[in-house]
Write a structure and sequence with these properties.
The complex is a heterodimer of chains A (about 110) and B (about 120).
Chain A lengths: L4 E3 L2 E4 L5 E6 L6 E7 L5 E8 L2 E5 L6 E5 L5 E5 L8 E8 L9 E2 L3 E5 L1
Parallel strand pairs in A: 2-11
Antiparallel strand pairs in A: 1-3, 3-8, 4-5, 4-9, 5-6, 7-8, 9-10, 9-11
Chain B lengths: L3 E2 L4 E5 L4 E7 L6 E7 L6 E7 L4 E4 L2 E6 L4 E6 L8 E8 L11 E2 L3 E6 L1
Parallel strand pairs in B: 2-11
Antiparallel strand pairs in B: 1-3, 3-8, 4-5, 4-9, 6-7, 7-8, 9-10, 9-11
Classes of the chains: A mainly beta (about 110), B mainly beta (about 120).
Chain lengths: ~110, ~120
């Protein structure tokens, strides 16, 4: 158990809909990262937050957004869903210093868009 | 263009033998490298890492070697055990790269099967 929690574990929805994925980082970690793993693809970095502020953006679509709240949990919002958004979405967290390089991953949310 | 490449999608090894998983990278700015192990239906689990100032790092049965001139790293597992069967991801990062704060660039993974 990495200490990172993600809910829900599975999500099935229809095209055009909007969903919210939730992540709680390890205790003490200030950074939260979101990754997408599509079929046959490696993990693709989407976005990073540090102590409530956006720090870096990767291959995140404009239909996707995220935020990190004062209690440090984070939410990833996916809207106008398309079939191609079906994927595993992972959240990771890392310590504020002395180990920022190592990220600890949650179990993921499996999203299926029908 | 893939910056981190794992050219072998799968590897099969006999229990007790050495498993060698390879990874190549193209960006010379990368200064930290990690290996993650992933079982089905679970998130990636951190295994071992290496900084670019080193060429070797050991942790029990796992050793990572880094060859900066060749932009190549490898993970050695000795001896291999059936419980090591999983997908192994190589990842790289660089502080400040592209404005980032350490986000990881992953390879596509190598599926290791250790046969009893």
């Amino acid at each position: 158990d990495s200490g990172v929690t993600q809910t829900p574990k599975h999500l099935i929805t229809a095209t055009g809909q909007r969903v919210t994925l939730r992540c709680s980082p390890r205790s003490g970690d200030l950074s939260v990262y979101w990754y997408q793993q599509s079929l046959d693809q490696g993990l693709q970095f989407l976005i990073q937050y540090y102590n409530g502020e956006e720090r870096a953006k990767g291959n995140i679509l404009e239909r996707f957004s995220a935020q990190q709240f004062p209690d440090l949990h984070s939410e990833l919002n996916l809207s106008s869903l398309e079939l191609g958004d079906s994927a595993l979405y992972f959240c990771a967290s890392s310590p504020p210093q002395g180990g920022w390089e190592t990220q600890y991953f949650g179990p993921g949310t499996r999203l299926l868009v029908l | 263009d893939q910056q981190v490449k794992q050219n072998s999608p799968s590897l099969s090894v006999q229990e007790g033998r050495i498993s060698i998983l390879n990874c190549d990278y193209t960006n010379s700015m990368f200064d930290y490298f990690l290996w993650y192990k992933k079982y089905p239906a679970e998130g990636p689990t951190f295994l071992i890492s290496i900084s670019s100032i080193k060429d070797k790092n050991e942790d029990g049965r796992f050793t990572v070697f880094l060859n900066k001139s060749a932009k190549h790293l490898s993970l050695h597992i000795v001896p291999s055990q059936p419980g090591d069967s999983a997908v192994y991801f190589c990842a790289a990062s660089a502080w400040g790269y592209g404005g980032s704060q350490g986000n990881l660039i992953f390879g596509k993974g190598t599926k290791l099967s250790v046969k009893p």
